[in-house]
Amino acid sequence: MSEDSRKSGSPATAGGNGPVVPARATPLEGGFSTVHVEESDKLNKSVLHGLWALTWREIRKAYQTPILVFMTLIQPVIWLGLFGKAFNLGSVFTGGSFNIPGLNIPKSVLDQLSVTMMQSTFGTSDYFSFLAVGMLTFVLVFTCMFSGMSIVWDRRFGFLEKVLGTPVSRGAIVMGKVLSSVVKSFIQAAIVLVIAVLLGMSVTDLTPQGILGTFAALFLLAMGLSSLFVMLALRSTDWQQQMAIMNLLNLPLLFASNALFPTHLMPGWLQDVAKVNPISYGVDVGRQLLLGSPGFNSLGFDFLYLAGFAVLFSAVGIVLSWRLLSK
Amino acid sequence: MQDAQTVEKLRSAPVVLTVEHLTKVFDNKTKAVDDVSFTIREGEILGLLGPNGAGKSTTIKMLTTVLKPTSGKAEIGGYDVLKHPTEVRRIVGVVPQEYTADEDMTGKGNVILCADLYGISRNVSEPRALQLLKLVELENAADKKVSTYSGGMRRRLELACGLINRPRLLFLDEPTLGLDVQTRSAVWDYIRTLKVQYGMTLLMTTHYLEEAGALCDTVAIMDNGRIVKVGTPDELKEGLGGDIIEIGVRETNADISGIISSVALVKSVKSMSGYYRIKAESGEEATPAIIEALRNKGYHVTRVSLTKPSMDEVYLEYTGRKLRDAETDAEEVRKQRFTMMRARR
């Protein structure tokens, strides 16, 4: 309000809501510049202001087209519904499907065998629940990958150029991408969790605290992953190259983790990779908190590792944005 | 638009932009901008005129802090572009060559997003966005998605975005690239409005000669990264050595160049095949004098033409006539093609 009243101090501009096109008698005096000087001290110079504007833009854009949200959910749902349901390992032992002629093993023993085998291998009584937690990170990885893609589009469509011309902090440009993809992957993961429960994920150990804790871990994971993908895209103008990077990275990232299979079944070298892969730590938190499985790390270590990953990669992302966004 | 009073006023106005020995050498050793110096005063429209790849856009990108200069200095409103990039960005507006609006958002949404990026609070930016959209006659399309906009509408939206922070200096990079004639003249009108009603200071690049001639107070002709000539459009035209008169007589075998050069205003005479090409200081006065002189000697004038030098002649005089396809870089060409393609929608 004071803004407007100040403005009307210059005689030609009448009132706050009047048109900004005053007929000036002396065209070269005053004009925009004097108004600007008066207003400049009223600006909100906080980094968060620009960061929020950029983040909100991305989120709003993403949910303007619900069909796209739906499409990104198809893949994890197929994995869950088809792969997860079909790969019903427990039933190999149960219900008489497994019997050795001449040895009359009682059904109860076989059932017990099955449960023990599942527990010791997957840490839960059914593979579907095991996979469901892995799928939470699966959808997270995919959503985060597109954060890199969107910076390429912004560059290509000139939007990035415009943003670079404004006083908004370069770090905010990168973090806007990162935060929006964190929010998007949160929403995706929540939907996948609901679908998994509907499809029969074990809910015996599900608690609000567990869900909260899991999403805290997913937050850190998403933060680090999107920073990584944004970083890879900072200088790129070529979306095909970006697609190639995404395709190159997504399956190795998932297979070389405990998202689909327990690591202790893997060959040693792959186990080593899975131990470095931050996705394993996110999944480990999820399995412990949502399914009550024994983890391969303590929760504290998992969180520490994920926090380190998130802080390191977003810091590197911000530093690179200073150096790489303008040539 | 060049009356003596305006010119006088401009010369005494405070300096907004100073550029000293600005140079940009890219990684591949090409000197895109080579030791460029100029100033812009408040209320002035300076046009950088030159062929593709002359270094105009690179100059603008350095001044708007998107590119870092290799050497040299530039100050806008007292702020050094290298030392205080954020302050510089705060006081300048940029309308880049490309279409930069977010297509998935509405026109108004885009302007308000720009305001947010400048840190302008919503209670200021909302009414201001509407005022600016009205200024560029987009108020009826304000709530439509930009993807439905035509090229001209997009260009106008860019203009509104560039003005949202009430800049002290507005950069316009090829403001009419790819636009049809009607839209182009509409954009010219907005630029004139900005100048006349707001006293806006502008730096624009163009490779359209008539655009530079029609809008700019000062034209700097750029070629190969250097500024080869600076002056008002009139000065540049006069600098060419005057108007061109072509005259032919019925007595084709006689040599009449002696008679013509004896006329006071004539500077040079050249005999062409069947006619004479004359450079004279003031064509309007020289032409009747020449005809009079010829008639007194008994010659019969059969044809006369008078050409005032246009920006075309000025441009060709200083940049030469050779084609320079090879000199632009691929990225720049791709962007320009992309812009033109989108303009034609």
Structural summary, described in words:
The complex is a heterodimer of chains A (327) and B (345). Chain A is an all-alpha fold. Chain A is built from 13 helices and no strands. In chain A, helix 4 (66-86) packs across helix 8, helix 6 (127-156) runs parallel beside helix 9 (208-233) and helix 6 runs antiparallel to helix 10 (239-255). Chain A is elongated and about 85 Å long. Residues 1-41 of chain A have low confidence and may be disordered. With 345 residues, chain B is an alpha/beta fold. Helices cover 39% and strands 25% of the residues of chain B. Chain B has helices at 4-12, 56-63, 85-91, 107-117, 122-135, 151-163, 181-198, 209-215, 233-238, 257-261, 283-296, 311-319, 330-343, and strands spanning 15-25, 31-41, 45-49, 71-76, 79-80, 92-95, 169-173, 202-206, 218-223, 226-231, 243-249, 266-271, 276-280, 301-307. In chain B, the strands form 3 sheets. In chain B, strands 6-7-8-3-9-10 form a 6-stranded mixed beta sheet, with helices on both faces. In chain B, strands 2-1-4-5 form a 4-stranded antiparallel beta sheet. A 4-stranded antiparallel beta sheet of chain B has the order 12-13-11-14. In chain B, helix 4 runs parallel beside helix 6 (151-163) and helix 5 (122-135) crosses helix 6 (151-163). Chain B is elongated, with a radius of gyration of 24 Å. The two termini of chain B are 33 Å apart. The mean pLDDT of chain B is 85. The interface between A and B is large, with 52 and 60 residues.
